[in-house]
Each structure stands twice: as C-alpha cells, then as structure tokens.
Amino acid sequence: MSVLVLIEHDGNSIKDSTLATVTAGSKLGEVHALVAGSNVRPVAELAAKIAGVAKVHVADAPHLDHQLAEEVAPVAAKLMEGYDAFVAPASTFGKNIAPRVAALLDVMQLSDILSVEGPDTFTRPIYAGNAIATVKSNDAKKVITVRTTVFDKAAAEGGSASVEQVDAGQPAGLSRFVGIEASESARPELTSAKVVISGGRAFGSAEQFHGLLDPLADKLGAAVGASRAAVDAGYAPNDYQVGQTGKIVAPDVYIAIGISGAIQHLAGIKDAKTIVAINKDEDAPVFQVADIGLVGDLFKIVPELMSKL
Amino acid sequence: MKILVAVKRVIDFNIRPRVKMDGSGVDLANVKMSMNPFDEIAVEEAIRLKEKGVATEIVAVSIGPAKAQETLRTALAMGADRAILVQTDGEVEPLAVAKILANIAADEQPGMIVLGKQAIDDDSNQTGQMLAALLGWPQGTFASKVEAGGDKLTVIREVDGGLETVELTLPAVVTTDLRLNEPRYASLPNIMKAKSKPLATKSPEELGVDITRRLETLKVAEPPKRKAGIKVGSVDELVERLHGLGVAK
Predict the structure, then answer these.
(1) Dist. CA A8–CA A67, nearest whole Å
(2) B2-221 is classed in which CATH architecture?
(3) Which residue of B has its CA nearest to A71?
(4) Mutate to test the interface with B, among A63, A66, A80, A109 (most CBs of B within 10 A)
(5) If 0-12 CB within 10 Å is exposed, 13-18 middle and 19+ buried, where does residue B184 land?
(6) Could you give the CA distance from residue A204 to residue A38 in angstroms, rounded to a whole number?
(7) Could you tell me if B122 lies within 8 Å of chain A, comparing CB atoms?
(8) CB distance B242–A92 less than 8 Å?
(9) Touching check for B164 and chain A: CB below 8 Å?
C-alpha cells in the first residue's frame, strides 16, 4: 500500500505530531510525505530526513502559505491519485484539512485512529473515549487522522528521501489568513511534554492559577494544562485545555491539581504513564484513575511542593 | 441572508454511555437523548446573527429517525424559523450527512451553514469540512468568534497554537467550538410557539443521496480501565514519589 502523510509544520520546523503520524503510516506501507506551503524547501529538506519517509513532495506557492484547508486539500486530493492512503495528524491542523480531502475523494474518513489492525481495519475512540470501536473501511482509498500520542515518534534524523516539486495548483481564493495570536511560552508543548501540570477551577482566579502553577511548571520543566472548567472560567487560554475536546496528552507524569476529573478531562489523560492528583475532595473522580493521590488544600500543598522539590 | 443550521440527536452529554455486552455498540435503549451540545452552540450563533440583523431566516436541518423531530423542535423553540427532517433510521456517516446537507443547500441557497465541530457520539469531526468541500465553499472550523461584514465573514479559530483569524468569502461553512457562545434555554411560550412552526420531512432517496455505509463497525469495546493507585499522606511523601518517577531530580 502506498501512503501519503501530510506534514504539519509552521514554515520553519516540523511538528512532533508529524513524526508519530509517519509511524502510523508506516504500518500501512511505504510512506511518502507532502509538504505544502510557501518557501518551504527547508521544511521539505527536514521531512526528507525523517526515518521511514521514502519520498517528499513539495507544493510550494504563495497561496499555500498558512496552509489554509481550501488551498491545501485540492493539492493533496490531486496527489492522492497515486496513493492508497492519506494520513494526517489528528491535530487542529489535520482535522481541518483531512475531511476536506476525504470529501474530494468521495471517501469516508477514519478519525483519530488509535491502532492499525490491518490494511483496512483500525480502532478509534467514540463517545469521548468511553468506548473503542474497531472499524473496517470499505472505501478503495483510506483517509485517516491519527491520535499522535499513542504512536511512537519516528526518528527525525536518519532518512534520506528524495525531494520532488509537485503542482501547487491554482489559488482557490475563498479564504484569507488574517493572523494568529500565538500563546507564547518557553515551556514544552502540552502534547509532547514529559511532565504536565494541570489546574482546575479550584484555583479560583487567573492570577492564582498562573501564580501557583507557572513557577512549579518551570521548576519541573513541565507544560501547563487546564481543565475545561478552568478555561471556561477564564483562568487559562483555550489552548491549555486538556480533554476529549481539547488536547490529548500522554506525558510520563501528569499532575492534576484542583481538578475533579470530569469524564471528558479523563479521556484526555488516560495515556499518561503516571497520574498524580491533588484535590481537597477525597471522593473526587480523579482519584479513581490516579496512581498517586494527595488529599488537601492546593493553596497549602502547591507552595509546600515548590519549596521541597 | 439565510442561515442553515445542522443539528444531531445524540445521547445526552450527562449520560455515561454503556457498551453493549455483545460488543455491537453502545446501548441507547431508554437513554435520554438531546441535541448535540456543539450543534446547540451553532443554533445559538445563528440566532445571534439574526438578532444582529445579519441573518433573515434560520432553517434547522436534522438527519435521523422520526424522533429527531424533537431535536428540531428544540431548535425552533430556541429561535429557528423552520425545520427540515431528513428521516432515516440507522446511523448515517458524516460523508452522507454532508451530501444530504449539500443537496439541501443547493435548494435553499443559504449564505452560511453553521454546524457543531463534532458530534459527541461518533466524535468524527468531519461533516462541516466535507460539506464545505462538496459545495466548494470556504470553512471556518472550531470557531470561537464569528463576525459578518458585507460579503465576508471573519472567524477566529481555536487551533493548537492559539487563536487563528481567517476571513472567508460568503457563502461559507462554520463549525462551532465550545467558547463561541453560551446557548440559551427555550422559554415555555417559545416551546409552545415552536409546535406550530413549519417542519418538513424528506428522505435521503428523495434527495438522491446514497447513504450506504462505507465503514463497518466490527466491534465496540470498553477502553482499558485505569485502576486507582495509592494515596499519600503528606507533601514529603509525594515529593519522594515524584523523585522516584524521575521528576525534579
């Protein structure tokens, strides 16, 4: 089976999500990559080094800048004439583009796969991760998005794929990128961090959330996340949200502080190797999944942790 | 401008789904069903656009069993003007839903179609993007803010790295994220009024859409369960454990 993996990048570097996507794609067959963008030759060179990538297609044109779905999907769909499967990360980037490609190919997409069981059979979460479905696709071509936290990352170095320019097509001109308000952070990314500390509504305010969690995260080299309740209350920006409708994380250690453990939050952390929970309510659902729990007031515990770690 | 809103009848978000013993799916017998929460946000957004004078008419569409009429009545009670039910039993996949909606859009000629970013049952997150592709329209997915001006729509999107702003040329498809708005509750008088609002029923066959499934569900299982671990009694003990895990060493 020939596989086309969509490379997620920011114009300079390749996102880690891509590396796990390459691993998932490799389970189906030989992986070729598509890098779409404007002035992205350097990105293509990086993609060519990923272990397991045999060939890199570059679609390079001004209208592909910012990788708008309306512009990238037709390029990918055209290229798919020569492939059996299209694989993208189930990040907001991949989720935006892949279904558009699927519709152009008249294929029913397999979203957020957790495993490859065979050439046309996969598992995927449904009902916010409360059930796992094993699904077989009867379409001739497959369009797949991958839950990147469950697949190992392919090595970023070691490959030596050829790089080939492909037709970037004509601008669709339906949409225009206006800007991005990036959440700047020197901390590791939530989805790839080894340690994640998340806070919930119990923090009571944005000041206390950041005042207590940020120094602790910096001390541990951890990423900071938040429950939906904390995000909705305005304590943390939306891209901090961990859970089924936010980010799925799989760190070595996940520390949930002042988070009760709603189903939708737990669905986003169940691949963490160790879950640590700190909550003043000893009956909080989070303790049912936590490997290590500490019952108590976070306003006392966090400062004490800070001084003792 | 006319706005089309798609709504799906799903298991109520407060209910914990139970996997059937025979692994054939999730047990939906005698379970409370409601409008997909993301679709509720879509209905609310359409109503706000009408209140601002941007939209003139809101048409709610659902694809599902006869009972999906209840979901449409909820949309009508919130403020939609009329409804269309494309009636069919059994599951309809996002690709088929997108085809049905594209078909209705060709007939209704809306300036905008608003849908939830995903349904909380199959969690596919596909329909809006597929619909936009089939119509050749732009898409503003995972929207946390929508502003209309002239023939353009400015959409702020919740993306992994922050908030992205795009400008779309109408007609366009918008899919809603959680923070777009807080949906209203329908008042009792509006619930009563909704009963007399027009609701048309069609079938996929009438619309000429083949809804044959492309994906076959072989098995549905419970996810592997995590077990509760230990509770520690002090911060010192927690620090020791964290060190044991290689944290802050």
Answers:
(1) 9
(2) 3-Layer(aba) Sandwich (3.40)
(3) B138
(4) A109
(5) middle
(6) 44
(7) yes
(8) no
(9) yes
Average pLDDT score over residue span A211-229 = 94
Instruction: Name the fold adopted by A2-165.
Output: Rossmann fold (3.40.50)
Kindly provide the ipTM of the predicted complex, given to two decimals: 0.94
- Those of residues 205-224 in A touching chain B at CB distance below 8 A are 219-220
Cα B61 to Cα B58: distance, rounded to the nearest angstrom: 10
Location of structure tokens 């939306």: A238
Digits of tens for pLDDT over chain B (249 positions)? 999 999 999 999 888 899 999 999 999 999 999 999 999 999 999 999 999 999 999 999 999 999 999 999 999 999 999 999 999 998 999 999 999 999 999 999 999 999 999 999 999 999 999 999 999 999 999 999 999 999 999 999 999 878 999 999 999 999 999 889 999 999 999 999 999 999 999 999 999 999 999 999 999 999 888 888 999 999 999 999 999 998 876
Angstrom distances, CA of residue B13 to CA of A192, B10, B77:
29, 8, 20
Residues in A 11-50 with any Cβ partner in B closer than 8 A: none
Q: Are B156 and B164 in contact (CB under 8 A)?
A: yes
* Centroid of chain to Cα A223: 14
Domains A2-165 and A195-308 agree in fold: yes
Q: Could you tell me if A228 lies within 8 Å of chain B, comparing CB atoms? A: yes
Are the beta carbons of A136 and B216 separated by less than 8 Å? yes
Q: State whether the Cα torsion A18-A70-A140-B89 is positive or negative.
A: positive
Domain borders along chain A are 2-165, 195-308
Pairs across A and B, CB distance < 8 A: 257
Give contacts of A 89-118 with B, CB under 8 A: 91-93, 95-104, 106-112
Domain A195-308 has CATH 3.40.50.1220: yes
- CB-closest option in B124, B134, B235 to A308: B235
Rounded distance, CA B175 to CA B119, Å?
11
